[in-house]
Amino acid sequence: DLKATVLSAASPGEQKEMLGERLFPLVQAIQPTMSNKITGMLLELENSELLHMLESPESLRSMVEEAVEVLQAHQAMDTSYK
Amino acid sequence: RKSTLNPNAKEFNPRSYAQPK
Questions:
Q1: pLDDT by residue (tens digit) across A11-24?
Q2: DSSP-derived secondary structure for B1-21
Q3: In Å, what is the CA distance from B19 to each residue of A64, A67, A76, B16?
Q4: CB contact (8 A) between residue A20 and residue B17
């Protein structure tokens, strides 16, 4: 499994890739429709936060829900300006 | 509460799904 020591040996880009590959199926299980976008949003957070989410389903779920709210607010703003 | 999440973030496309080996 994914440990901080494994991550520290990889380049920053590779670290995000490794975290993304593990987060994506979990995000997809919670929110199937926007999982690519939500995973991308989560990957902008600190790696330590991402590792915590991988170990804590409640943390991941609440962050995914927050991402959905942020996306919906953003999309609502987009359409109101068109 | 202000969110730290950025709605303009780049989408993540997993290698394992995009290119099955």
A1: 999 999 999 999 99
A2: ------TTPPPP--HHHHS--
A3: 25, 26, 33, 6
A4: no
Distance from CA of B1 to the nearest CA of A (A): 11
Cα angle value B4/B6/A9 (rounded, 5°)? 80
Mean local confidence (pLDDT), A48-69: 96
Strands (E), A1-82: none
The whole-angstrom separation of Cα A48 and Cα A60 is 13
Residues of A in contact with B16 (CB under 8 A): 21
Q: Mention every residue, 6+ apart, whose C-beta is less than 8 A from residue A64.
A: A27, A30, A31, A38, A42
Query: For chain B, which ranges sit under pLDDT 50?
Result: 18-21
For A32-44, what is each residue's pLDDT tens digit?
Answer: 999 999 999 999 9
